[in-house]
Amino acid sequence: MRKVVQGKITFAQLLNDTGELLEISRGEAIYQPGELSDAVYLVEEGRIKLAYLDESGKKLTLAILDRGEIFGEMCLVGEERRRHQASAIEDAVVRRVPRKEFTRTMNAEPFYLQLLLEHFARRVREFEEALEDFAFKDIQARLSRQLLKLSDEYGVKTKDGILISFQLTHKELADMIGSARENTTLALNRFAREGILDKSRYRIIIKNEEGLRAKCNAQN
User: Fold this and answer.
1) Which of 17, 105, 165, 191 is the most buried (most CB within 10 A)?
2) Dihedral over alpha carbons 11, 12, 17, 18 (to 10 degrees)
3) Sign of the C-alpha dihedral, residues 197, 92, 50, 71?
4) What is the pLDDT of residues 15-24, one digit of tens each?
5) Per-residue pLDDT tens for 185-210?
6) Which alpha helices (DSSP H) does the chain contain, by range?
7) Other beta carbons less than 10 A from residue 194's beta carbon
8) CA distance 203 to 164
């Protein structure tokens, strides 16, 4: 059994000798709604997007996951078929761990279960924050909050401002805030005119974080 230093163990350490590795190309789906829910996945390299799809094909991004994060964990609490889509937003490597194997690993040590509970709590908190935005914030406020989040998590300081360090289309950004691409582009154009950001097809540089924060707090 692994020796554990409490507070230091990670899913990557726990799962490093389990399951199988899968190479996923940018834009490729790992699983789709309706597929059998029988495994947990760990991001080894790249970034993964989780999204809901409705019957018309409209998409709502739930989360962007980085190296070391798990997904597909609802199979552990009774999900029989996938309810959302998981896909790569850049070339990625993921580890697929069958449900029984993952459960056996978690049951090996009580602290491992605590790690899993903390993961579920964090994911629920993220979804609640997103739901609050969709219910009470307009497009500009939702977009501002999402850009600040991306800046905090993926921002790289440059001489021009903070660059979001991966390719991001207007459609992908629209999916993150539950908006149409056209409306998201209009809001981005407004932010650009106001000097809050610079943008191109795949690149966004935030020039005025305080301006974005003001948009987050503006009344509808």
Assistant:
1) 191
2) 50
3) negative
4) 999 999 999 9
5) 999 999 999 999 998 877 899 999 99
6) 11-14, 99-106, 110-136, 139-154, 170-177, 181-193, 209-217
7) 12
8) 7
Q: Report the alpha-carbon distance of residue 174 to residue 188 in Å, rounded.
A: 10
Among candidate residues 175, 177, 174, the one with its CA nearest the CA of residue 134: 177
| Widest Cα–Cα separation across the chain | 59
Instruction: Give the full edge-to-edge strand order of the sheet including 85-88.
Output: 29-31, 85-88, 48-53, 59-65
Instruction: Check: CB of residue 113 under 8 Å from CB of residue 161.
Output: no
Under 8 Å between Cβ of 69 and 10: no
